[in-house]
Write a structure and sequence with these properties.
The chain has 416 residues and is of the alpha+beta class. It folds into three domains: 47 residues, no CATH class; 161 residues; 170 residues, no CATH class. Helices cover 44% and strands 14% of the residues. It contains 13 helices and 13 strands. The strands form three sheets. Strands 5, 7, 8, 9, 10, 11 and 12 form a seven-stranded antiparallel sheet that branches. Strands 2-1-4-3 form a four-stranded mixed sheet, with helices on one face. Strands 6-13 form a two-stranded antiparallel ribbon. Strand 3 and strand 4 form a beta hairpin. The radius of gyration is 23 Å and the shape is globular. The protein starts with 7 loop residues before the first strand and ends with a helix.
Amino acid sequence: MISNDRYIQVIDARGEAQTPTYLRRAKGLVKNGRAEWVNETTIRIFDLSIMPDKRIDGIVPASFSLEQPIPMVFPAMCACVDMQLKGSKANDETKRKNLTNTMSLCLTASGIGFLHAFDCAWLSDPAKPYAAVFSDILPSDDYIRYTMLFLGYNYRVIRNDGGNQDEMFSCIREAIDSGMPALAERAVGQYWNIIAGYKDTGALFGYYPRLAWLPAGQTISENTADGFLENGMFIKEDWYSCIEQIVVIESKNRQALSAGDFLPYWRSIMELRGGASLLCGFLAHDAMLSLLRDDAFWQNADFLHLERAYQMVRAMGCGLPECRAYTAGAIAHHFAKHCKAELPEGFWPFRRAVDQYFHDTHRQCWKVWRTSGDGLEYKEEFVAPFRDPGVRNQVLKLYEIIRQNDLHVYDALKNC
């Protein structure tokens, strides 16, 4: 008979149930790197034969899944690292709430929350994946710099130059040995990851984002041969062939934050124009409006291109509604609290504009989903009716409001 004190459920690396254990025993297994929390009453025992020689535990709560679009990946990974470095002792539920707040603030500080894009090449080339990785769209690594400035960290970026694997691994090992997780772009999958450990053989251990919203062609194939483990973890030997860059946090930055450090940068993000095939900012808005007004395209397109255009209308640049809503919440309720320097007089009208117009953009995007189909769910039956100008005009009016909302926020930014 199993004692009632043994209420912590135990599963092995394959998910099979084992004998329950005591809470104190479970905490000891997790602390010693032999298990992880799946939820507050269940632990998973690791297969120690593949576990790293050195690791930092508890960076990402076991129950945390990024129920957001791709632009949230980098801010979310930064939020997880920040929570670890600040030594949060909260329970999983509180950690999730804190992560969401910090993710929103990182999204805002990075400038990604102000970005908008239109991928012309995706529309014309059915074989091309959508340019949804925002680090590919932004013209520089300023999104990293401003995120780290906001979080208060001194850091170093090391890019893969084709011959510096030893240097990268050495920096990662030094950081992990110092208790500092690192950030890596595309160690596994297509997005940002957290590096939380290593094996002496040179393998890296870490976490990858478990995403809920992914457009066609962007899903992650969680193949164990590619290094993926269960529950958002990975361990990979051949990481150098795919990794783009790493961000190693070196120390705390005690510089007092000022909104004036960020306002010109956010304005520059809204002023981005992009290139010939990837449009940004107001040119992206104008491209969407032109597409919706192009009767000849909608009437003559074959079904493949018709479906692509329909998906593009509903994708909204991949994450526009959530980016705007989370940015509005961060600026309206939290951002000013982190600024120790005096706020410029124009910040308050800007804050009101963001709160009003970015939240309204979120509402208008939901109207687009309802007007063009059955909410968020894609159904093929709604594609063909988009040939009708009357159907498209309803969506066109909503996109005109969305563009105007961005213009109101941009004008407020210029007056800061």
